[in-house]
């Protein structure tokens, strides 16, 4: 009898990722061996250590505050999602799962799509744009039942 197809279910937002797996039709989902990941939920004002720098105006004698090129919170979120995408790619490279279903907040899902490696892109079985990272396992199973026979 052939081995069942094992599906990794990634549930994420910009600051947290949880991993579940499905081992076949009618088997439900269970916690995957891949460790959950936590980023930071701190607002930019708490991430930035100092006040913005000051510079002299090009014309006139005034000084003005300089803004950082990127928002610290958005940067932390992007780095976290990069780590999530790398962990999923590594999991697929090791052969632990055959395909993937991603459930993520719409903004996080869009970011993840740009970060997927080639193995991940090939293994995507479905995506759900919903923020349920704090939901229980039954709610996750209900959210993916139209994408995966749980």
Structure description:
The chain is α/β, with parallel strands linked by helices and 150 residues long. The chain has a single domain, classed as eRF1 domain 2 (Nucleotidyltransferase, domain 5). It has helices at 44-47, 72-93, 106-115, 118-123, 137-144; strands at residues 7-12, 16-22, 30-31, 37-38, 54-56, 63-65, 99-104, 124-129. The protein starts with 6 loop residues before the first strand and ends in a 6-residue tail after the last helix.
What tags apply to this protein structure?
150 residues, alpha/beta, Nucleotidyltransferase, domain 5, six-stranded mixed beta sheet, 8 strands, 33% helix
Layout of strands and helices, then pairs:
Blueprint lengths: L6 E6 L3 E7 L7 E2 L5 E2 L5 H4 L6 E3 L6 E3 L6 H22 L5 E6 L1 H10 L2 H6 E6 L7 H8 L6
Helix pairs in contact: 2-3
Summarize the structure.
By secondary structure, the protein is of the alpha/beta class. The protein contains five helices and eight strands.
């Amino acid at each position: 009898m052939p081995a069942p197809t094992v599906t990794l279910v990634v549930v994420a937002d910009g600051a947290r990722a949880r991993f579940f797996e499905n081992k076949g039709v009618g088997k439900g989902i269970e916690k995957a061996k891949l460790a959950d990941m936590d980023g930071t939920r701190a607002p930019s004002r708490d991430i930035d250590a100092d006040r913005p720098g000051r510079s002299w105006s090009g014309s006139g004698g005034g000084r003005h505050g300089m803004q950082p090129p990127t928002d610290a919170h958005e940067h932390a979120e992007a780095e976290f999602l990069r780590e999530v995408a790398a962990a999923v790619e590594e999991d697929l490279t090791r052969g632990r799962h055959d395909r993937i279903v991603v459930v993520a907040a719409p903004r996080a899902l869009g970011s993840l799509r740009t970060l997927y490696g080639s193995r991940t892109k090939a293994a995507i079985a479905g995506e759900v744009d919903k923020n349920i990272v704090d939901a229980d396992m039954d709610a996750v199973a209900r959210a993916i039942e139209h994408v995966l026979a749980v």
